[in-house]
Model the fold of this input.
Amino acid sequence: QVQLVESGGGLVQAGGSLRLSCAAAGRTLSSSNMAWFRQAPGKEREFVGVLRWSSGNTSYKDSVRGRFTISRDNAKNTVYLQMNSLKPEDTAVYYCALGPPYSINSTFVRAPGAYNYWGQGTQVTVSS
Done:
């Protein structure tokens, strides 16, 4: 049984920073992609970024590139989403997701269907 447990959400002012964590249990991640998605009220879940665990390579949504960084800790089986220069439009529930190691440059990895396992979500609220 694979479990993804997220933490680190909260309330922050615009321009501030937060770091989300997603700890994975139940399988090794060496042959996986780990992604972050977000969902704002009344909107569809959208791709934020993805990391290929084996290489550490990443790909991001255009609007967060340069502000958000995904990284991993192999020893802790944990992936992180460092979010800097936060904007009110970043407000959403953030989810981590685990799936097969498709090319991170493909459009498919930007779809929720590319992932088999999901965390419970953590709320991020950015005030103006």
Remarks:
- The first strand starts at residue 3 and ends at 7.
- The chain has a mean pLDDT of 96.
- Residues 9 and 124 are 5 Å apart (CA to CA).
